[in-house]
Amino acid sequence: MQRSKWQRALIILSLILAGEAIFTLPYHVTRFFRPTFLEVFDLSATELGVAQSAYGFIAMAAYFFGGPLADRFEPRKLLAGSLWATSLGGLYLATFPDVTGVTLIWGFFGLTNILLFWAALIKVTRAWGGERQQGLAYGLLDGGRGLLAAILASAGVFAFSVAFPLGYDAATLDQKAAVLREVIYGYTGVTAAVGVLVWFTLRGLDDQQAGAQRLTLSEFVAQIKSVIQLKVVWLQATVLVCAYTSYKAFDQYALFAVRGHGIDEIDAAQIVAAGAWTRPIAALALGLLGDRFGISRMATVCFVLLIISHSLFAFTGNALGTLSMIMLNTLVTGIAIFGLRGLYFGLLEEGQIPLAITGTAVGLVSVIGYTPDVFIAAVAGYLIDQSPGLSGFQHLFTLLLGFSVIGAVAAILFDRHAAANAAAAGR
């Protein structure tokens, strides 16, 4: 079924909206309104951390099992169903459950966000891009998600500030709870509405177009085995885990500026904010360059930029301690890590992984690639605490440098392997 440019535009817009809206409840609420959330729910930071860990651990298993589901079921049902299920979780969250309930709902979000959603999103995006526009597809997806996240966050924070005309400190606990409930309802409504949009915009994307299959159990197991045996899948997983490690460590940059170089906290926040705004630009720009020059080659370029930026922070000591130099190097880091986010799933097409097994491949790649969600915060905290001041951060950047070198090698090997496969296939 041929689709017009307007239909294609509506599909990718729906995917962008879905790709960010589904994460607003488990991430945005606690990221942008954390002090109020802790106060209203009567939670300690540790208790909230444990609840969010439940999300992470369930998500790790869900990545793997969600992949085959994406290969077996119609994508719009998985995407819309997961959005609606997540919104139901938002309604429960708005009742302000106790710590047990919060832990359970975050575990539930791990299932709805990942098991039913993630691999299906990546697979449909790949189908949208076709053979020649993978960089454009994933660049638009991640860049658009980054822009939407900034817009939603700004809107939520603005609404939150307007709700307290006499100042936050003057508000009672009941007033804070009422406003927070409205914020949760707002994110819940957006999530549910995007589910409706996805349901209709993806109508007609039938099983053949989406590469869905109806497999017996033995065929299902054989498919998983075939994916595990693909060298390009493991190389792609290596690229992803190395890229995602630097992405997760980006959370430490404000602390690095303050504790490592004595920079004012407001200036430090502005440094990170400026770096974050490179996401929509870098993801799309590097994606387009990937379509022109090769996805794996541009991934290699991004890793080289990370090698340079991490080396400067790791080995120059106070030489890069000025606000302008830290800002410049942070922007380079932002371009590299967000560029990689717009590239690494484009490797599926470059590696000639069949569309029919995309979901299974995405599941395996993701369960390995997103392991930094589990370890990087703890490792970074340990290094920083064990060596106070600048030296702890230098140890962290040395670790990141090592991952970037490994990522560059994996990207180079992927490029060579993909080129050899293409030559053998006569492409």
Present the secondary structure layout.
Layout: H1 5-21, H2 24-32, H3 34-41, H4 45-72, H5 75-93, H6 99-129, H7 134-162, H8 173-201, H9 207-210, H10 217-228, H11 231-249, H12 253-261, H13 265-276, H14 278-293, H15 295-315, H16 323-341, H17 347-350, H18 358-369, H19 372-386, H20 390-425
Helix pairs in contact: 1-6, 1-7, 1-8, 3-8, 4-6, 4-18, 5-6, 5-8, 6-7, 6-18, 7-14, 11-16, 11-18, 11-19, 11-20, 12-13, 12-20, 13-16, 14-15, 14-16, 15-16, 15-20, 19-20
List keywords for this structure.
mainly alpha; single chain; 427 residues; 2 domains; Growth Hormone, Chain: A; 0% strand
Please provide a written account of the structure.
It is a single chain. This protein is an all-alpha fold and 427 residues long. It folds into two domains: 1-212, Growth Hormone, Chain: A, CATH 1.20.1250; 215-427, Up-down Bundle (Growth Hormone, Chain: A), CATH 1.20.1250. Helix content is 82%, strand content 0%. The chain contains 20 helices and no strands. Helix 6 packs antiparallel against helix 7, helix 11 (231-249) packs across helix 19 (372-386) and helix 14 crosses helix 15 (295-315). The chain is globular. The protein starts with a helix and ends with a helix. The model is unreliable at 206-210 (pLDDT under 50).
Topology as a string of helices (H) and strands (E): HHHHHHHHHHHHHHHHHHHH
Q: Any idea how many domains? A: 2
List segments where confidence is low: pLDDT < 50 over at least 5 consecutive residues: 206-210
Q: If helices are DSSP runs of H or I spanning 4 or more residues, what is the number of helices?
A: 20
> Quick one: biggest sheet?
none
Range of helix content:
over 70%
Mean pLDDT: 87
And the CATH topology of the largest domain? Growth Hormone, Chain: A
CATH architecture call of the largest domain: Up-down Bundle
Reading off the top of the CATH hierarchy, the class of the largest domain is best stated as Mainly Alpha
Rg to the nearest angstrom? Answer: 22 Å
Structural class from helices and strands? mainly alpha
Shape call: globular
- Separation of the first and last Cα atoms: 25 Å
CATH superfamily of the largest domain: MFS general substrate transporter like domains
Range of strand content: under 5%
Q: Give the tally of β-strands.
A: 0
